[in-house]
Amino acid sequence: MIRRLLVADRGEIARRVFATCRLVGIETVAVYSDADSDAPHVAEADYAVRLDGGTLAPPTDSPGLGRGTAAAYLRGDLIIKAAQRTGANAIHPGNGLLAEDPDFAAAVADAGMIWVGAPAKVLGTLRSKRETKALAAEARVPVLPTFTEPAKVTGYPVLIKPDAGSGGAGMRVVRDASTIAEAIASTRREVGCDVFCEPYVEDVRHIEIPILADEHGSVVPFGERECSVQRRYQQIIEETPSPAVDPGLREELCRAAIVAVRAIGYVGAGAVEFLLDSAGDFWFLELTPTLQAEHAVTECVSGYDLVRLQLLVAEGGMLPMPGPPPIRGHAIEVRICAEDPAYAWLPASGTLHRFAVPDVAGAFRPLPQPGLRLDAGVEDGSMIGVHPDPTLAKLIAWAPTRQEAARMLASALTRTQLHGVATNRDLLVRVLRHHSFRTGDLDTNFLDRRPEVFAPLLSAVDAVRISCLAAALAGAAGRRATAAVLGSLPSGWRNVPSGSQTAVYDGPAGPVEVGYRMNRHGELAGWWVRAVDPEELDLAGLGQAPVLDDHPETVVVAAGDERVVLDVNGIRLTFNVHRVGEVSYVDSPEGSVALRELSRFPLPAPEAAEGSLIAPLPGAVRRVLVVPGQRVRAGELLLTLEAMKLEHPVHAPSAGVVASLPVHPGAEVDTGELLAVLDPE
Known about the structure:
nine-stranded antiparallel beta sheet
C-alpha cells in the first residue's frame, strides 16, 4: 500500500496528483528547485525537499538559495534520496521525462519503493519508437513504413523523427530527395540520437486512445481524444469525443489500442497515439507511457479519477470496470501557455501579476456535473521562468454538447485576467470561435492554414482607443486618491478653459497619446487618441492635438482607479483596470490590453554596436555553430537558444564576419544580452 507519495515533477501535474492523494488519505512529498521555492505545489504538500542541495524544509519555507532550474527535476538520484529522507514509500514521476526513463524506474524499484508508472523493462522498449512500431506491426496494428537510410525512401514527403524523445523535438518534413541526406544528418546532430523517416501524411488528425492496464491482464480504453490543434508538433487544444470518430471507428481504434498494449506488455496509465485520415484509415504512432496532460477531458466524460486508478494499479490492484465507460457529453481542454504566438511562439517570462479565471466549478479532480475545471500550476505573483514547460494552466469545459463546451470555454477565456506575461489566450479564443473548429474541420496543420487566428482579440481601432481612455481615467482617479492636497477636486479641474489632460502609452501597435477634457460639471467634454511617432516622444509638442470630437459620444458613468464605466453611443461598458508600476492592464468585454505609460522625458538608452545580435528571450545557449573570424552568409544559423523545452534559432541578418562571440554552449542569457557581433562586409 502507498502510504506516503513523492511526486517527481512540478507545477500543475504535482498539484493534480496531490489532490487525489488527499482524497484517498495518502501523505504527499513535493520536490522543488530554487526557482520554485514559492510555487503552489510546494505549499500544498505535506513535506517538501529542495533538490539543489540544502536541508529538508517544511512546505512554507523558501530558502531561495542559488538559481535552481528545471534540470534539478531530472536528477533521479536526488529525488530518490528525497523520498528516503521523508519516509516516502512510493514515487510518482508526473508526466515529464522521468516518467519515460527506464533507468529511473528501475532505481526506484531497487530502492524498495513503489513505482507509479510503467515497468522499467517496458519503458526500455518504448524508448525506441522504431522498436515499438515493430512490435505493433507484428501484432497486426496498422503502422506507416519506416526508413532508416535516405536511399531506401520510396516516396515524398517524409517526416524525419528522432528514435527517442518526446514533445516534437527534431521532427521535420522533407519534400524531395535532394535535401533528405542533409536533413537527416542535421536532425541527428540536433537530437543526439538515431533518427528514422516515415511517410508524411497530409490532412490527418492526431487521435489518441487513453488506456489503463493492470498486472492482472485487464486493459481498459477510455474512448478517444482529438489532439489535432498543435504548434510545433505539440498540442494546445484537446477534446473528447472526436468530431470525426463514430461508434464503429471508435471500436476499431480501441481494439487496435488494446492489441498494441498487450503486444508491448504495458501496465499502468498511458495513451496509444494514431494518425487518422479523412477516409477513416489510421496508423499507430507510439504508446506514451504517462498520465497525459489532457487526461482531464477523459475524466470529465467518463466520471473516473484516472490518478486514483493509476495509484490502484501501482499497488497491484485490479481495475474496477469491466470495459470502456460510457461517454457523457463533450469536454474540451486548452493549454494556457506563457508564449507569444504572433512572434514565432516566443516564450514569455516574468511575474504573473494576476491570474483569475471566472466561473470555475472545480479543480484537479472530476467534476460532479458539467462546468469549468481549472488545473493550474500558478497563482497571482508566480514567477514564470524559461526553463520549465510554458504551460501555466489547463482550462477544461464540460457540457452536454461540443458546441456548448466550445462556447463556454471561449467565453471564460475572454473574461480571464492574465496580467504580466504574454500568453496564447487570444489565439485559443479565436480557434474556439473559428468556423472550421466549430464544424469539426480539423487536422494537424490547422494553425498553419488559418493565419487569421493569430490576430489579437482587441483588434478593432475603437476598442483599443476606448481602452486607452479608460486607462487614462483610472490613472487620474488613482492620483487623486493619493493626492496630498485638494484630493477632492476633480482631476484636471480649472475655473477657466484650459488644455486637455494627456497620457502617452506604449500600446499593441506602438505609442499612442490619449487626451480628454472635462467641463466644470465634471463631465467628459471631449477626447481623442492618436498614434505617436516614436521620435516625437522626446519633444515637447505632445498634448497639442487639434480636435476633441473625432470619437464616439462618450459619457463617464464612473471612474475609479480600478474600475471605469463608460457609456459609448448609448452602450454601457465596464473596464477593469489593474495597474502595476507603469503598466495598466485593461480588461473589458472587448478583450484585454496592456498599456505601458511612457515618460515625457525618457532617459537615453545605450546604443548597441553595429552588427550586434542580442538575445530575444532569456534561456540557455544550446549550440554555437560558428567561431570568431568565420565568414557567414545571410540567414546562416549562428547559434540556438533553448527555453521552455523549445529550441530558438539565431540567424545572421546579413553576410559578414563573426567579430565577437561572448557566449558558449550551456551559458545562461537574459533578454537583450549580447550573443554575437557581425562585421558586415
